[in-house]
Amino acid sequence: MKQHLFEQRHSADWQRFSALLEQLERGKAEAKACEHFAADYRHLCQHLALAEERGYSSHLIDQLQHLAMRGHQQFYRHRSHLGAQLIGFILAGFPQLVRREWRSVLAACLLFFGSLIGMGLLTWQFPELIYGLLDPAQVSDMERMYDPDARRIGRFSERDAADDWMMFGFYIMNNIGIAFQTFASGLLFGLGSLFFLLFNGLMIGAVAGHLTRIGYSETFWSFVIGHGAFELTAIAFAGAAGLKLGWALLAPGRLRRSEALRQASKPSIQLVAGVIFFLIIAAFIEAFWSSMTYTTPTIKFIVGAALWLLVIAYFVFAGRHRHAPD
Amino acid sequence: MQPTPPSVAHEPSRIRQRLLDTRHHVETPEGIDLVLRPAGALPRILAFAIDLLIRGAILLLMFIILGFLGQFGVGLGSILFFLVNWWYMVLFEVLRQGRSPGKQIMGLRVVHDDGTPVGWGASLTRNLLRFVDMLPFGYCLGLISCLSHPSFKRLGDLAAGTLVVYREENSNRPLIPEGDSERAPFRLSLNEQRALQGFAERQSGLSAARRTELAGILAEPLDVPEEQAEARLNSIARGLLGAT
């Protein structure tokens, strides 16, 4: 068939398809108009294949290819219900993922909590150690923040609702930023994640050890225990996601490095999504609960311990039993 | 409908392997080949610069407005700063079919390697890993990776399995000069037919001297003097098209 005849016969179809595509691209297509979309798209693909096979001119092939590309974009668009997906992920997907990726999670947790606890104990025993990590100005800043005497004068009670909001915003920005860095730098063969896990672990451990040693333990621990359950695990998991990326590059196995990286990036980014979720909870607790002064430290310790148990139980038990499919 | 010899059917793919170009071919489940044209470093840098300007403008405007809200405004500002800093690209890429405003202006688009629109996971991956591409300073790693990869991928693209491509624009119908149509004096292979049609369709983009020169190559097999070769080729192209 000559090209001219072919074009004459089908150009009306192509125009119709193009108009439908335009509607879809603007998100204004009616359900009725889309009934034929799949069939039309297959038809167009067939026309393209025919045109290529018969050696029609580049212009026609380009035109059809352009249409096919736009059709492809619409046909294979991800139209999942984000809300349902999120709830499913939070209820079951995230803990399942953490259990499935237990190797990198365990490694990251050992690195982070290991360095945190180790450094905490060391600073508790050897007072000068803190000055190896922080300069004196920062140390005195820390001391002022958690000083039990200052607290009695009412530094924290002066904080009103607007301050809480300010701190909420700050925690979100700061902590999630740190988590993203910890994850992303894992691409450098895992070295970046390794560094940030150890660095944050040592830092937090040193501060905790130091404040405990100088007797500020009640103010400090009652402040951090609540959101720590979410914040510390989130940082560790962000590191785990980064280590997974790095490991894919270091030991790709039988795959090519780029392919191994691509496969590793999928669970990694899901871990990061869970981390974001956890850090938002942490920021909320930190801004609105940890800073509250109406409660006694005992209540804070009890709530904090409950939150830790909750987090651990969540990762151990959630999503173990599948419900019957709806 | 003329039957095509089976050997010809495979010819396009063989030709493609020999061609030295950056086009990226994706075979879809429908059995057709989509052609993606990956964008190089320069348009992407420009697109990023435009986005950077837009983001700067948004932040500036925001801080001026939120400045009046006091502490609450500072908190809201930090959240918004976080959103603009880390989520600007992701939100635009996923919700606007792979186009941030900068990419829109530069005519670019982000897609998965298989040509499908970029989703949340891939977009988040490529934009979070931007942090590494920026190391040690000024996008060095990203640039090195982009320049050394056949499809110009930076590290984030490699991990996410995404591709930045040119958006295809619909071209206008090229005009083949009027005249008679005739059959070629010998059998043309499929690729020769396409080359001939390509020559006829791209006339307006070539100078007269260049056209004569190109057509002159075929003067001898067509058995015409060199200055008539161009008109002859055009009429053969018209014949192939079947326009008359």
UniProtKB/TrEMBL annotation, chain A:
<feature type="transmembrane region" description="Helical">
    <location>
        <begin position="165"/>
        <end position="184"/>
    </location>
</feature>
<feature type="transmembrane region" description="Helical">
    <location>
        <begin position="191"/>
        <end position="212"/>
    </location>
</feature>
<dbReference type="Pfam" id="PF01944">
    <property type="entry name" value="SpoIIM"/>
</dbReference>
<protein>
    <submittedName>
        <fullName>Stage II sporulation protein M</fullName>
    </submittedName>
</protein>
<keyword id="KW-0812">Transmembrane</keyword>
<keyword id="KW-1133">Transmembrane helix</keyword>
<feature type="transmembrane region" description="Helical">
    <location>
        <begin position="271"/>
        <end position="292"/>
    </location>
</feature>
<feature type="transmembrane region" description="Helical">
    <location>
        <begin position="105"/>
        <end position="126"/>
    </location>
</feature>
<keyword id="KW-0472">Membrane</keyword>
<feature type="transmembrane region" description="Helical">
    <location>
        <begin position="232"/>
        <end position="250"/>
    </location>
</feature>
<dbReference type="InterPro" id="IPR002798">
    <property type="entry name" value="SpoIIM-like"/>
</dbReference>
<feature type="transmembrane region" description="Helical">
    <location>
        <begin position="298"/>
        <end position="317"/>
    </location>
</feature>
Automatic annotation (TrEMBL), chain B:
<keyword id="KW-0812">Transmembrane</keyword>
<dbReference type="GO" id="GO:0016020">
    <property type="term" value="C:membrane"/>
</dbReference>
<feature type="transmembrane region" description="Helical">
    <location>
        <begin position="75"/>
        <end position="95"/>
    </location>
</feature>
<feature type="transmembrane region" description="Helical">
    <location>
        <begin position="45"/>
        <end position="69"/>
    </location>
</feature>
<protein>
    <submittedName>
        <fullName>RDD family protein</fullName>
    </submittedName>
</protein>
<keyword id="KW-0472">Membrane</keyword>
<dbReference type="InterPro" id="IPR010432">
    <property type="entry name" value="RDD"/>
</dbReference>
<feature type="domain" description="RDD">
    <location>
        <begin position="39"/>
        <end position="160"/>
    </location>
</feature>
<dbReference type="Pfam" id="PF06271">
    <property type="entry name" value="RDD"/>
</dbReference>
<keyword id="KW-1133">Transmembrane helix</keyword>
